[in-house]
Amino acid sequence: MTTQPIIRVELPAAAPSAAAPVAGVALVTIHRPEVLNALDRSTMRSLAETLETLDADPACRAIVITGAGERAFAAGADIRAMVDMSREDHLADDPLAAWDRVAAIGTPTIAAVRGYCLGGGFELALACHMVVAADDAVLGLPEVGLGIMPGAGGTQRLTRIVGPARATELILTGRRMDAREADRLGLVSRLVPAADLLDAALALAAAVAAMPTQAVRAALGAIAAASRLPLDQGVALERRLFADLFDTPDQAEGMRAFLERREPRWSDR
Ligand code: HXC
Predict the structure, then answer these.
(1) Could you tell me if 26 and 105 lie in one domain?
(2) Residue 116 alpha carbon to ligand 1 centre in Å
(3) Residue 13: inside a domain, yes or no?
(4) For the chain, which terminus, N or C, has the lower number of CB atoms within 10 Å?
(5) What is the pTM of this model?
(6) What would the pLDDT profile of 55-111 be if each residue is shown by its tens digit?
(7) 126: domain range?
């Protein structure tokens, strides 16, 4: 009997009937549906390695990350694997570094979220560049109720998006919010009916993958800097990245194509 990998990578077709994969898009699925895709150490390590491999592949220009089954994106870090852990276990071999590795991916990442998206699962979605949420998504950070706290970026990323008042209430009570509230708070790029989730996430990924790679990566870098740099430094970084793009063939091609009223032919495809 062969064991199925916990992290599965596909080159998805645009529609079930379409034979060709969506150009430049990879679909990565966390596959532990029996525990609502709870994230243990080997799952997260394998996810980070998979994403880093895709990030190094120039043919991959957008990545959709989702959870297997209909019930969960991921119901958190694996509580069974954490129950006997000590402070030293965390300090010696930082198991949370895998979330940082996800956040460091330079290829656009889209979390396609349905069902439970809790704790480390929510923190994983927050580490992605965009979130497409199904209307049945349930999001929250229940860690404090387990005697711990969010430890994979949740206190930082949630607070930067929704502000300290709302982040504090959500983290200290562990309250779960529905997809509509998450959308209202600015956590979601697109909110769609559950049945359309994967199609919507893949369509968004396809739209991004159709863009010129260097411009996409430069824009992502500048957007990421907005949450860590003071405004003047962020604007200075933006100006430098903007100027750098005038050294790329895609700048000339994109502008000529517009003036010649034709589709651009990007340099890497
Ligand atoms: C381990 C989990 C799990 C988790 C669910 N399961 N979540 N196992 N870790 N985080 C397992 C259950 O034990 C059960 O296995 C199976 O998945 C189905 O779950 P049920 O509880 O039976 O389903 P249901 O009654 O529908 O409840 C769904 C649920 C609940 C509300 C999502 O499972 C739940 O509250 N899960 C924990 C959510 C949570 O606290 N997450 C934060 C974890 S801490 P069996 O074998 O019994 O069938 C965290 C820290 C992050 O994320 C900080 C750093 C990364």
Answers:
(1) yes
(2) 9
(3) yes
(4) N
(5) 0.95
(6) 999 999 999 999 999 999 999 999 999 999 999 988 888 889 999 999 999 999 999
(7) 7-209
